[in-house]
Amino acid sequence: MAITSPAERAPNLALVVDDSSAMRTILSRILKGLGFEVHTAGNGREALERLGEVGGIRLALVDWNMPEMDGVEFVRAVRGDDRLAGLKVLMVSSESDVARMQIALEAGADEYAMKPFNAAIIRDKLELLGLGGG
Questions:
Q1: What's the pLDDT band for 80 if we cut at 50, 70, 90?
Q2: What is the mean pLDDT of the chain?
């Protein structure tokens, strides 16, 4: 039996941030299928709290349009916190205008996926980010 280091045994932790419970469920199911342990939040403010509570989250899938703190505000807050420098952020939104995508990427999102999406699109985006899953 091979001995693995704690880092090798550590799960890939992800955070799904969306005000739609159905969308949180769909994205969580996709990520779990790719080997991630998934945590969820209903808006950006709740997501920042979750990042503080759960150490080691490597990936956040974030909706744009949410109450209290939207996805772009969340991305800007994350990028303003040096402790979260390693967090990969995939914006998953129905915002399809190129100018809006540019705003998200300039705010610090690492990738952008438009709704509707499927599991293959999410998997491909994660591979681009170097996070192919479990």
A1: very high
A2: 90
Count of domains for the chain = 1
In a domain, 32, yes or no: yes
Strands of 12-17's sheet, edge to edge?
A: 36-41, 12-17, 57-62, 88-93, 111-114
Is 3's pLDDT higher than 90? no
| Torsion of Cα atoms, 8 then 10 then 15 then 16, to 10° | 80
> Which structure tokens are listed for 38?
């998934």
The reply to whether 24 falls in a domain is yes
- Per DSSP, the residues of 109-123 read -SEEEESS--HHHHH
Instruction: Return the bridge partners of 91, or none.
Output: 62, 112
Distance, CA of 13 to CA of 103 (rounded, Å): 26
**54 torsion bin: left (phi>0), alpha (psi -120 to 50), beta (else):** beta
- Residue 72 sits in a domain whose CATH number is 3.40.50.2300
The stretches of the chain forming alpha helices (DSSP H) are 6-9, 21-33, 44-53, 71-79, 98-107, 119-128
Domain region containing 97: 9-128
pTM, two decimal places: 0.89
